[in-house]
Design a protein that fits this description.
With 195 residues, this protein is α+β, with helices and mostly antiparallel strands. 40% of the residues lie in helices and 23% in strands. The protein contains 7 helices and 8 strands. It has helices spanning 4-18, 46-49, 82-95, 111-121, 125-132, 144-156, 182-194, and strands at 25-32, 38-45, 61-67, 73-77, 99-104, 140-141, 161-166, 173-174. The strands form 2 sheets. The chain has a 4-stranded antiparallel beta sheet with strand order 1-2-3-4. It has a 4-stranded mixed beta sheet with strand order 7-5-6-8. A hairpin with a 5-residue loop joins strand 1 (25-32) and strand 2. Helix 4 crosses helix 5 (125-132) and helix 5 crosses helix 7 (182-194). The radius of gyration is 22 Å and the shape is elongated. 22% of the residues are buried.
C-alpha cells in the first residue's frame, strides 16, 4: 500500500515536472478517501502554501488522487468536487458496460400521468404517449448523480421516473454533467419525443 508520505512525494514530483522545474510546490492537505482507496492531496506553489503570496496561487486543480495500491495519480479539476468525481467513478465501475438511463415509472395505461407529462412538457398527447412506450422510454443517458438530480426535478413537476442500467438505450438523449434546469430538461425530453 502507498502510504501518505509516498503519495505526497509522487504528487510533488508530478507537479514540479509539469512546471518543468521552474516552480517548487508544497502540500496543502493530504487525507484518505472515505473508502480508503485514494489519497486526496491538495498542492500548490510553495510561495502560496508556505508564504501566503496570493499571486503565486495556481488555479485549475482541485486535488490529486493517488491510488493507494498502484500509486497512479488522477487529477480532479477545480470545477468539480472530489466527492462528485469519486461518486461518478464508483457509479461507472458499478455500471460496467451498461449505461444509466432515466425513464418513466409509468406506462400509457396511466392516463393521469400521461396527461401530466403532456402538460408539463407542453407537447402533443401523441408525443407524451410515445415517451412512455417501451421502445422510447429511455429518455436521458448520463451519470447516475446527474440523473438523480433530473429525477428530483421531474418529481417536483409530478412526473414519476426511475433510473435503470441498460445495455444500448437507442432513443435516449445523452447529456453531460452541465448544470441542468427545468427548461433544458424539458427541451431534452421533447427531442426524445420527436425522434
Amino acid at each position: 500500500m502507498i502510504d501518505a508520505e509516498q503519495a505526497k512525494t509522487l504528487v510533488l514530483r508530478r507537479s514540479e515536472a509539469s512546471s518543468h522545474g521552474r516552480e517548487r510546490f508544497a502540500i496543502q492537505s493530504c487525507t484518505l478517501s472515505e473508502r480508503g482507496d485514494y489519497w486526496v492531496i491538495r498542492a500548490n506553489s510553495e510561495d502560496f502554501v508556505v508564504r501566503g503570496i496570493q499571486e503565486r496561487c495556481y488555479v485549475g486543480v482541485n486535488a490529486h488522487l493517488v491510488n493507494t495500491v498502484s500509486g497512479q495519480i488522477e487529477t480532479v479539476g477545480s470545477g468539480r468536487s472530489v466527492d462528485q468525481y469519486l461518486e461518478d467513478k464508483y457509479d461507472a465501475a458499478a455500471a460496467g458496460a451498461m449505461q444509466y438511463v432515466l425513464g418513466p415509472a409509468f406506462g400509457k395505461d396511466d392516463k393521469r400521468a400521461v396527461i401530466r407529462l403532456r402538460q408539463k412538457l407542453e407537447c402533443s398527447l401523441q408525443q407524451a404517449i410515445k415517451l412512455v412506450l417501451p421502445e422510447s422510454s429511455n429518455w436521458i443517458i448520463g451519470t447516475r448523480r446527474t440523473l438523480l438530480h433530473m429525477q428530483a426535478m421531474l418529481l417536483r413537476e409530478g412526473i414519476a421516473t426511475n433510473i435503470q442500467l441498460r445495455k444500448s438505450p437507442i432513443s435516449a438523449e445523452s447529456i453531460d454533467d452541465s448544470v441542468w434546469h427545468w427548461d433544458a430538461l424539458k427541451l431534452a425530453l421533447n427531442r426524445v419525443a420527436a425522434k
